[in-house]
Amino acid sequence: MPNFIFCVHIHQPVGNFDFVVEDACKNAYLPFLKILSEYPSIKLSLHISGYLLDYIHEHHRSYIERLRTMVKAGQVELLGAGYYEPVLTVIPEADRTGQINLMSDKLNKYFGVRPRGIWLTERVWEPHLPESLSNADVEYVVVDDYHFVKAGLKKEDLSGYYITEEQGHILKVFPGSERLRYIIPFEHPEKFIGFLKNAKNESSLFVFADDGEKFGVWPGTHDWVYKERWLKKFLDTLTNNLDWIKPVTFSEYIEENEPVGRVYLPTTSYMEMGEWALPAEASLDYTNLVNDIKTWHDGERIRRFLQGGMWRNFMAKYPEANWMHKRMLSVSKQLKNQKSKIKKGNMATASRHLYMAQCNDAYWHGIFGGLYLPHIRSAVYENLITAENIIEGDDKRSSETRVEIADIDADTQEEILIRTHIFNIFLLPHKGGSIQELDFKPKAYNLTNVLTRRYEGYHNMVRQKASEQRDNAAKSIHDVTKVRETGLERALIYDKYERRSLIDHFIKLGTTPDVILDAIRAGEFEEGGGFVNAVYDYRVVPEINEVVLHCTSTAFGIPVRVEKGIKTEGTVIAVNYRITNLSDTLLHTVFVSEWNTLLGFGLKARDMGDMEEFELQEDWLGIKFNMGLKPQAHLYIYPVETVSVSEMGFEKNFQALCIMPCWDIRVAGGDTVSIGLTIEVLDDSTKIYLEKNLCL
Fold first, then answer.
1. What pLDDT score was predicted for residue 687?
2. Is it true that the peptide bond before 185 is cis, omega within 30 degrees of 0?
3. Which of 10, 197, 391, 538 has minimal CB crowding within 10 Å?
4. Would you say the C-alpha torsion 509, 512, 517, 523 has a positive or negative sign?
5. Calpha distance 429→415 (Å, rounded)
6. Which of 228, 244, 269 is the last residue of a domain?
7. Can you say how many angstroms the Cα of residue 221 is from the centroid of all Cα atoms in its chain?
8. Sign of torsion, CA 593 597 600 604?
9. How many other β-carbons are positioned within 10 Å of the β-carbon of residue 282?
10. What is the dihedral of CA 437, 440, 442, 445, to 10 degrees?
11. Would you state the pLDDT for residue 637?
């Protein structure tokens, strides 16, 4: 008699909008559990990520009560995991254990059970995991049958769970069926029955392990699963076949069955992840190759040996993801190093914020928005900065301005951090002396949390499917190709350099404001200088805590030295430029200091004219951003927008407001011109804080 494990994983990323989480609860999570509770003979293995569990516990207590009853009755087995759904392989060992234990403790508190197994985030597997999981009292994990295929096994031969180990630390590993992931819930229940009946081994174990969002959140699935009654039909079909199908949980199966063998799984995730993790062009080529092989008469024989990239490649594919990841590691290290100096309660709170910043979604991109969603990235930075604020709150030096030099992003090059009680300013001397990250600490907000416009393999499909599709049938999320707005293909603009701030340009512009603005927005202006990605030398002036960056290159063939000093006092950052003509030839050009900020959502591209001051009032965030320009500059602004794919289809996302003050400069041979910018960021709490300090 075949055994069937019905395993569902439900998750919402840290920082997601409440209305999105609530819609998912009402459209999927609540009705799914309610209907399942009406079929007590059908077992469920369930994982709920910690952030979502907290939300449900606060807003839908009846769900918790129903689930508690089902757990007590033995109908549901709960799986653990890292509490905030981190990719376990890329966070520090102590954090892995901490997150898993936090989840186990919470499940024990709410439901009176400690999980024996875990849901492995995005099924990202690396061979060293068994030791970590064993040390966290994890007995089993579920991955995909794809993992086993990459170890040389055949899907049709997988008939149970396997043993693996690392340094003698044992872990039981279950293979989830790729075919069932595509059958459930997108095909009629008879397809499920037929799949089981056609199995090579009649006593096989069949494991469905996939996202619960496909039962009501993915496009078209709510109507299909509930209004068209797919779920009831499926459960009815399963109930009517209990004479030869045995629904079980993972733990029940382990108790009644021995492992079928030993396996050592390679570094991998599910099949689609390997496609997404590759560089854009390679991803497209890999996808085309896989599709071609499917048409060959013996294609499957070859396809089983093909594999795409590994999850860590996202940190090479997207420098923004790498920076976030290395910032997370640095905060984890700070917590570890300062542990003896931080109060116990503060330590627990700071650790919780660190764990939230480890939520996987913001660090990668595939069929879901992920890294492309600014609010998800912002949640990572908010939690990292909050954790640092707590650490610094117990540090007597926190009120001092400090300049720190270290290789933060693990690229062998030193970065410079100017740290005050108001700002963190991360400078990249080796990348144009630019600002990578500018944190406004009172609001725990990274003002320069922006994303570069870059080519993605699926952009070809955007061009092909520029008109919106209308199709009411439920589909797998991997088949969604809907274009959510007309003209989206016109937003496919790619940057020639990474989006940062304090980027130095010497440019030759057109003759009319419209021409200039269009050229700037499209990145088609003539770049006459060699400073954008140049290596800047630097010196620190400790008496005034100023960092001075300087570089010698050319501007339209004329040798030029650019020096910029950055210092901060209170809520003001001052940038002072000195541009020196090192030749005997007159330099007449336009100098631009480019800034990109995650503020100004909704603003349109605009020629602002000559200005001495530019101000943004962000009421939703409670921040006032002011840029002072001396002498006055001609100012252009425009939104930086990307085209990405999500579960809803192809869409445009705001990533930054680009602010480009332009100075028309004339510098005679041997002469120097000076340009100044000031950035002031305020909120009410900062004003009060400063006023109190002044009174003292």
1. 67
2. yes
3. 197
4. negative
5. 7
6. 269
7. 25
8. positive
9. 16
10. -60
11. 96
- CATH code of 563's domain: 2.70.98.10
| H or E stretch covering 599 | none
Q: Does 201 have pLDDT greater than 90?
A: no
- Please identify which residue in the block is written with the tokens 């992840």: 273
Residue 180 in tokens: 């069932």
Q: Which of 199, 198, 205, 190 is nearest to 236 (CA)?
A: 190
- What's the rounded Cα separation, in Å, for the pair 624 and 641? 23
Chain segment 495-516, per-residue pLDDT in tens: 999 999 999 999 987 767 777 8
- Residue pointed to by tokens 């603009």: 493
577 in any annotated domain = yes
CA distance linking residue 225 with residue 215, whole number of Å: 6
Please give the Cα distance from 422 to 408 (Å, whole number).
20
Q: What is residue 485's predicted lDDT score, i.e. its pLDDT?
A: 80
CATH code at 49?
Answer: 3.20.110.20
Q: Which domain holds residue 467?
A: 459-695
pLDDT attached to residue 582: 97
| Distance separating alpha carbons of residues 112 and 118, to the nearest angstrom | 17
pLDDT beyond 80 at 478: no
Residue written as token pair 């030839």: 585
Q: How far apart are CA 412 and CA 206, in angstroms?
A: 48
User: Measuring CA to CA, which residue among 7, 360, 56, 5 is closest to residue 212?
Assistant: 7
In whole angstroms, give the CA distance from residue 210 to residue 50: 17
User: Tokens in use for 189?
Assistant: 């229940």
Q: Which residues are catalytic?
A: 122, 211
Q: Give domain status of residue 192, yes or no.
A: yes
* Count: domains in the chain: 2
Q: State how far the alpha carbon of 116 is from the alpha carbons of 9, 42, 113, 250, 610, in Å.
A: 16, 20, 9, 9, 66
- Is 481 contained in some domain? yes
In whole angstroms, give the CA distance from residue 415 to residue 205: 53
Q: How far apart are CA 459 and CA 625, in angstroms?
A: 34
The number of residues in the chain equals 696
Q: Which of 269, 299, 321 is the last residue of a domain?
A: 269
